[in-house]
Structures are given as C-alpha cells and as structure tokens.
Amino acid sequence: MKIAVVGATGLVGTKMLQILEERNFPVTELFPVASAKSIGKEITFKGKQYKVVSVEDAIKQRPDVALFSAGGSASLEQAPMFAEVGTTVIDNSSAWRMDPSKKLIVPEVNADVLTANDKIIANPNCSTIQMVVALKPLHDKYKIKRVVVSTYQSVTGTGVKAVDQLFNERKGIEGPMAYPYTIDLNVIPQIDVFTENGYTKEEMKMVKETVKIMGDDSIKVTATTVRIPVMGGHSESVNIEFLNDFDVEEVKELLAKSPGIVVTDDIANLKYPMPLDAHDKDEVFVGRIRRDETQPNTLNCWIVSDNLRKGAATNAVQIAEYLVAKHLIGQVVEA
Ligand code: 2RA
User: Fold this and answer.
1) Which of 210, 251, 268, 298 is such that its CA lies 20 to 30 A from the CA of 17?
2) What's the 249 CA to ligand 1 centre distance in angstroms?
3) What pLDDT score was predicted for residue 333?
4) Does the ipTM exceed 0.90?
5) Is residue 300 part of a domain?
6) 120 C-alpha to center of ligand 1: Å?
7) Torsions phi, psi of 150, nearest 5?
8) What element of type H or E holds 200?
9) Are 299 and 242 in contact (CB under 8 A)?
10) What is the β-pairing status of strands 234-242 and 2-6?
11) Which residues of the sequence carry a binding annotation for phosphate (predicted)?
12) What is the pLDDT of residues 112-160, one digit of tens each?
C-alpha cells in the first residue's frame, strides 16, 4: 500500500506513523507530508529514512490511503484533491465529521457502513471515540435514552504547545501559553471555543458525533469537557440512562467481552482505570461500574483511553485495516 501521512510531524501524525509500524500495516511506499518549513526533513519509518514532501508531490504519487491530521482548513482543501486521484482519505480533523455525505467511523461501532465509494472518511473526536466504544454494546442490549458525560482531558489533546506549557509551569519557566490560564495544579472547564448555547465546541462534538456514530438520534447526550494537567489519556465520568433495566454484573461481563474494551473494576483491591495505566495502549478501559441509585435503569461508569492512540491514530489505522480487509481500498465503484 502507498500511504501518505498528512501532518506527519505533529503529535497525532507522528503517532500515526508509530501505529502503522507497530501494527505492521502493509506499507510499500510512504509519503510523509508536512508544512513548507518541514519539507526535506527526514523521518524514520521501519528503519528507513523518508523525506517530508509537499502535499502536491504526495498527490502526484496517487497513494492508496492518506491519513490526515493537519487541521480542518488543510483537510477541507486537500482531502478532495487526494480523493480525486483515487486515494482514500481518513481525516482526524473535525472538517468532515458532520458532513451528511461523509461517514464518521469507529470500527468497533459502525465500520460495516463503509463502502469502496467512501473516499473521505472522518475520524471522530478523541473524547467521542472512547465513549462510543463502551456505549455500543450497552445500547445494543439495553437501549440508551440519555448520556451525561463529564470529561477530564489530557493536555496532549491540544498539542505540543500545551504539553510544553504544562512542563514549563511545573519547572517554573515562563513560556508560550496554549491556554488562557495556568494548567498545572489547575483544571480549565473549557475545551475549544464557546458556542451560542453556552457549550463549547468540544462538548457539542460529543453530543452530535455520538448520535451520528451510534446511528440513533433518539439518544440524548449532554457534556461538560474539562482540561486537566495529565499526559496519558482522557478520562470520562459517564452516566447512562437506559430504556431497559440491567444487572451490574451482567454489564461488566458484557463490556469485558466487547471489542476494544478492558474492564478494570475491582474496588476491593483499588483497581480502576487511570491515564497513567492507559497511556500507550489501544484499549478503552472501563471501571467504577455501578448503578445510579437516584433513578431507575441508570448506570455510572468511568472510561479512560489514550487520546493520541485509540482517540486518534489507532482508530484511523483501524479504519484503514478494515478497508484493506474488506477490499474497499483502491477500487473506484461507479455510483
Ligand atoms: C482535545 N479532543 O482534547 C480535543 C482535540 N484533540 O483538545
């Protein structure tokens, strides 16, 4: 497979290259793409050196797949250029997620909707991905009515500048600010900009993307997304009201046998998911599973996952793996 990685020098792009290598994705030719200032830089992939190229040069190579993590405006402009030459684009930005003509995919939830005609596929927001992996088996069995989620999101979700701010603050060093406030020893109840309804874009992404991925607009979602000074991954406190009742032990068994999930729930031995444990793993870790005793048919749980891996790079590569396995890449099927 001829693979382009657009945004190859960013946090997620670098992780995409790592995941492609780790999972031994069948790469025969690699085209790392980055901004003009990075062209000519060398990156190492599978022990070989590759020069960063321009998006124009990558398009000329007609790659089979282009993994994008280069921001929304670059994706809006460049993804169609790749698609026109037959490339399948898997884009990690928010640019195409709510476009009704584009599919928003988490393989454990809805990969089966993909066809060879899908040339631009959207990778959901990291905080949405980890939640829907856990919601899917529960919705199938108990039918979800409403989800209330509060997130505790790693600074890696913002990018290098935020990670630098955290560690500069920790060392007492003045430096560029990714956030309007100090992040060390603090939490910031704002991720992305505010919208006219008083929510942030991040919160509305969780609301809208969840419904699209689950394929059920009867699911009500409300979210509060919060930035916290950690590195290993995003954590989420999730309250789920079902149409039908459930047994807590049955819920734990159901989650434990569902794809992509590890249940870490042994409070007698203080075992529950934490970002330090989820870091550099691809699973979605679920724990603190318990009944909400204040209303019927309602569950509380705690969901943790590495936001750069399953929340971004691994999910994108898993979409590509699915397309390869189903022979949906490289063919152009007339509508
Ligand atoms: C964040 N989910 O954590 C957003 C984008 N990665 O900042």
Assistant:
1) 210
2) 32
3) 47
4) yes
5) yes
6) 21
7) -120, 130
8) none
9) yes
10) unpaired
11) 97
12) 999 999 999 999 999 999 999 999 999 999 999 999 999 999 999 999 9
